[in-house]
Amino acid sequence: MKSKLHIETASAFKDKLKEFDMHAPSLYTHEIGSKLYHIEKSLTRLYDNHCLSVKDFTRLYDMILDRQEKHVFAK
After folding, report:
1. How far apart are the C-alpha atoms of 23 and 68, rounded to whole Å?
2. DSSP class of residue 34?
3. Whole-prediction pTM
4. Per residue in 11-37, pLDDT tens?
């Protein structure tokens, strides 16, 4: 069962990804790769500290991978 912390953390992290999407078109590929790397590390730390459920972690991680495919690997 999800706790309030899990829900709020997942929502905040999703907002962080939306913010990334707004700025990504103006960034160079290496900057995008670096930002996504740091976002991924943040996600891992949140999960390791039990701030995210497994389901949310998986969903958010897939969102990061989609952005890597779109912005980094496609170039």
Report:
1. 14
2. H
3. 0.86
4. 999 999 999 999 999 999 889 999 999
